[in-house]
From TrEMBL:
Uppermost EC category: transferase
Swiss-Prot/TrEMBL keywords: Aminotransferase, Coiled coil, Pyridoxal phosphate, Transferase
Coiled-coil region list: 260-287
Protein's recorded name: Aminotransferase
Keyword Signal: no
Residue stretches making up the Aminotransferase class I/classII large domain: 34-341
Cofactor: pyridoxal 5'-phosphate
PANTHER family: HISTIDINOL-PHOSPHATE AMINOTRANSFERASE-RELATED, THREONINE-PHOSPHATE DECARBOXYLASE
Pfam family, one: Aminotran_1_2
Family indicated by similarity: Belongs to the class-I pyridoxal-phosphate-dependent aminotransferase family.
Organism: Prauserella isguenensis
Length: 351
């Protein structure tokens, strides 16, 4: 059983109601245009591919992440002791879920479902806090139960695309509680506003991912930034050599100032692409949730499930959003791409 608090009301208990293990990659293939997966580029840039190819000549040796730790620490202005490279953000959630058996975890929904899935797999009872559409899916710290000692929140949040103020997340921190901020998409927001990555804040852990911006989802590259005591605890649970040599090379390469500047330029392009998409969707009468800040948008369309299936017939895969707690079958998530005219024309016919 999973507890529910906040907008869900009732007696606060609901059955295990949605497929938390459903991800956008299950919706693509068959020649469909992929608007379901949030990996931004179809393949890594040539300079990164070249470094990855070179790294293969060193795979006889066991991996060493020291260079990656150094590079990530420098990129964020943190100490090396604050950094734990992981096999994608997903591994970080598993480590965090296993690190405090018997704690009282809370997941702020709608959000990426892997934190809750990892908590359930680690044997926790999970309490859900559901943010509301009427509130623009904005973070309301008052909804988080006072005795929650492990709190997961996304910023910007997948799938709502809402960017919470850093101050609202800081306000969740208190002695005896670890707040985990999933910043997997923050490198896709120009200037990385509202990030808590650059600062060691007691009781706050930041999860980052490199897989979306750089097109390396198959490589598995992410990291945690937290107080050394938290990093040590997670490292103690991490399987040996979890981060491969190519993944460590990617972490070093993507943390260099030139790469960070390139990510910033991609983020600016994505922002312009997203604003165009949002205005065209709104012109079609489609309801777009909140104020989108990430390179994807959440929309509500009456008969959304039928529209999603019809879009597949027309050659487009968009992500169903009914598997995110707090949403339902009318909700769909659309990844931002550079040219979406044909998709929008196809959608217009179906509305
Ligand atoms: C919000 C969010 N956080 C984290 C992740 C995990 O990313 P990865 O494990 O590829 O680094 C994803 C993947 O879809 C995501 O959407």
């Amino acid at each position: 059983m999973i507890g529910t608090e906040g907008s869900a009301g009732g007696d606060g208990r609901v059955a295990h109601d949605v497929d938390l293990w459903h991800h956008g990659d299950r919706e693509v293939g068959d020649g469909l245009v992929d608007l379901a997966v949030n990996v931004r580029v179809p393949q890594p840039p040539e300079w990164l591919l070249a470094e990855l190819r070179d790294s293969l000549s060193a795979v006889a040796a066991y991996p060493d992440v020291a260079g990656a730790v150094e590079a990530i620490a420098a990129r964020h202005g943190r100490s090396r002791e604050d950094v734990l490279p992981t096999a994608g953000g997903a591994e970080a959630f598993t480590l965090l879920a296993r690190a405090w058996p018997g704690c009282r975890p809370v997941v702020v929904h709608p959000q990426f479902t892997e934190p809750e899935a990892a908590l359930l797999a680690a044997g926790h009872d999970v309490t859900r806090v559901e943010l509301t559409e009427s509130g623009g899916f904005a973070l309301d710290a008052d909804l988080v139960p006072a005795d929650a000692d492990l709190v997961f929140v996304g910023n910007p949040t997948n799938p709502t695309s809402v960017l919470h103020p850093a101050a609202s997340i800081r306000a969740l921190a208190r002695p005896g509680r670890l707040v985990v901020v999933d910043e997997a998409f923050l490198d896709a927001v120009p200037g990385e506003p509202e990030s808590l990555a650059p600062e060691r804040i007691p009781g706050v852990a930041v999860v980052r991912s490199l897989t979306k911006t750089w097109g390396i989802a198959g490589l598995r590259a992410g990291y945690v930034l937290a107080e050394p005591v938290v990093v040590e605890r997670l490292r103690g649970l991490q399987p040996p050599w979890s981060v491969s040599t190519p993944a460590a090379v990617a972490m070093t390469a993507c943390s260099r100032p030139g790469a960070v500047a390139e990510a910033e330029a991609l983020a600016r392009e994505a922002e312009a692409d997203r604003d165009r998409l949002v205005s065209r969707l709104r012109n079609l009468g489609v309801e777009v949730a909140g104020t989108p800040r990430a390179p994807f948008v959440l929309v509500r369309v009456p008969g959304g499930e039928k529209i999603r299936l019809a879009l597949r017939e027309a050659g487009y895969a968009v992500r169903r959003a009914d598997t995110f707690p707090g949403l339902g079958p009318d909700w769909l998530r659309i990844a931002v791409r550079s040219d979406m005219d044909d998709f929008l024309d196809a959608l217009a016919v179906l509305l």
